Amino acid sequence: MGELAFSWESILNVLKTFRIWDLADIVIIAYLLYKVLVFASNTRAGQLIKGIAIMFVVYAFAAAIELKSTSYLLEQFFSFGIIAIVVVFQPELRHALESMGKSKFSNLSFLNFTTEKIDEETLLKNCIAKVVDGVTELAKHDVGALIVFERETKLGEIISTGTVINAEPSKEIIGNIFFHNAPLHDGATIIRGGRIFAAGCFLPLSQNYDISNMLGTRHRAALGISENSDAVAVVVSEETGKISMAVNGELMRELDPVYLKRKLEEYMIPEKTEPKVPKIFGKGGSEEK
Predict the structure, then answer these.
(1) Are the CB atoms for 59 and 78 separated by under 8 Å?
(2) Which of 65, 91, 98, 237 has the greatest number of beta carbons closer than 10 A?
(3) What is residue 162's three-state secondary structure?
């Protein structure tokens, strides 16, 4: 009972000394933490933060049981690692600061509330079906296309190079995006959360020099994004009208719509286990590294 009274008295003492500036201090720190979390969730920095958190836990454990060598190495990492992080993620950090400067208080996403619940699996299946219909139609007319499905690794830095659309997927929209001489037809279209989120985006080209010379820039870009992230890229060849899919640095070529839809659902639907890319394909398609 005495401990409870002491705790209540301590709380009252804190409240008596609490000032309006203390509240402002809390709000500012909360807002900065919120922006950091948003930045991390929309870019590859999210994986980096997870890695740093794991190393911090290892450091705390090593310090607790007095693993001197491990503790020393991790201390050096935390001392100089921050500088390395700033250098590596300089473009993303610059973009994040620019976004903060452009944002309006009324547009802060944490002020927007919604009670609508969407079945993620149904949303993804519908999106995949629309994309397959779209690329199938493009393939019939030998119209080139490059569509990237975002997965766990966020592609915020890629999206920033294009134009945000945030539209519900449809065969007609995909056809308009990749129509010859359309403003956004040369870049990649990014699918995020079951929606066509951005178009006209620039992707990193693959650094694999063993790629066939028969493959063009779209295929190299598809392989590049699959090597740098866990994204799944769908390509329509402008020369042959053939459909290919890149994932985990591997390229599956000459896919028919049924096979393409099935593989996209296997990779994109969260409930299903990610399949391994087979080395030999039967009727569905062939592989190119």
Answers:
(1) yes
(2) 237
(3) coil
